[in-house]
Design a protein that fits this description.
This protein is α+β, with helices and mostly antiparallel strands. It is built from 2 helices and 9 strands. It has helices at about 130-140, 160-175; strands spanning about 20-25, 30-35, 40-45, 55-60, 70-75, 85-100, 100-105, 105-110, 150-155. Its EC number is 3.6.1.1.
Length: about 180
């Protein structure tokens, strides 16, 4: 069985084009996690707050970030896909975030195979309303979970996102190869 975190490359041309393995679906409250030991997508929990993922959300293969997890990615999609779906995507921004004292940044990407997103190349191309919705989601999605504190710390451009992906690839190589 293929392990989507270990066996799949980071992308066809990382960091310019990456693979995003979808865990959580646009419009849902279910928080799925990829369990590399099974390997399969499992239900981790249902979000305690009455919020829904604004876009498909998952991780970048062969990456490891400062929070001790695969690097998170949110892919702007019109329609949800499914847990375990692999989306070829272009990074366009980075949302900085602190989750319980750990750096837990999120790459924002667009699918390479959806012409509706061809015009989004960098942070300034993402409409402010979309950025605000993503920020609001991550600012509030853990509010009703006891002892959890999350703080969003602003936005960075595509180049910063690509540098963070390279950092996550380096951490993965140091830790697991």
């Amino acid at each position: 069985m293929v392990n989507l975190w270990e066996d799949l490359e980071t992308g066809p041309d990382a960091p310019d084009e990456i693979y995003a393995v979808v865990e959580c679906l646009k419009g849902e409250r279910n928080k799925y996690e990829y369990d590399k030991d099974i390997p399969a997508v499992v239900l981790d929990r249902v979000l305690h707050s009455n919020v829904h993922y604004p876009y498909d959300y998952g991780f970048i293969p062969q990456s490891y970030y400062d929070d001790g997890d695969p690097f998170d990615v949110m892919v702007l999609v019109e329609d949800q896909t499914f847990p375990g779906c692999v989306i070829e995507a272009r990074p366009v921004a980075l949302m900085k975030m602190d989750d319980d004292g750990e750096q837990d940044d999120k790459v924002i990407a667009v699918p390479t195979e959806d012409p509706r997103f061809d015009h989004i190349e960098d942070l300034e191309d993402i409409p402010k309303q979309i950025r605000d919705e993503i920020d609001e989601f991550f600012s509030t999605y853990k509010n009703l979970e006891a002892g959890k504190e999350v703080e969003t710390l602003g936005w960075e451009d595509k180049e910063t996102a690509k540098e963070a992906i390279e950092h996550a690839q380096d951490l993965y190589a140091e830790e697991f190869q």
